[in-house]
Request: fold
Amino acid sequence: MQAYKYRNNLRVGGWAFFHITCLITQGSVNFSWHRPHLLLPMIIFGVLVMMNSRILLMVVCIGLTSTGCHLVQPLFNKPVNTPPVKAAPSAAIPPTAAKGSGNTKATPVSTRSAVGTPIKNLPQPPPGSGKHMAETGLRASEDLLQVQNPPEFLQVKYAILLDVIAEKLTNLPLLQVMDKWWGTRYCFGGSTENCIDCSAFTQLVCREVFRLSLPRTAQEQYNTIELIEKDELKEGDLVFFHTRGRKSAITHVGVYLTNNKFVHASTSNGVSISDLDETYWKPRFRAGGRMVIPQ
Reply:
């Protein structure tokens, strides 16, 4: 009977001891039974077997199983000796020689600047130079636009909008004026780059492209121009429309381009290109007009 108890104790204790040993040594790379930190569990195991205390042996083994690895694990996690990080060398402070002596002493340099403190001893711009700088920047931006939009670019851009080949668009001043005012919004009575109406736009195109003067309103332009049929329209001719009011009144005007297209200051899209056969414009077309060049 006594031998049977010892065999049970050996069986239970051996299982627990083996489990403890595996948990303790799970972080070890080179496993070995001859480690010093394993002596304590082995001694406890031997004492408990000699005392023939089966219950106490199981309690202690289970306790060691749950906590032994936490007690012994730090033995495997040795800190890695990493070389200390050297601080970057600070900027050398130039020594300042004291007057009348051979000694030198370093002058402290402050790297902190006060917020809102003006910096002294800097050249100030002359009065009124802000306007000059703004005008210079505006001229530079215009030059940049001319570089970015060369004649070839304008020809391709408006050839796509007009559905024609680029070589057919040879009136570069007209393309440049269109591109400058493209997208400018409509406003009644306007004649600036902020907003412009239809008759002011045709007046501007005739003046800057064809060097001709026109009256201010669409009705006056219609009354003073040579009227032509729709199929006789050529580039630079005017197209007149009735959009509101009396049926005989001319209330809208544009500049004919090519391929049934005309450029105008539209109330909805600003300076843009439309087609004479569009659903809105076709029933409202009244006549075409050609500017007479004085001899």
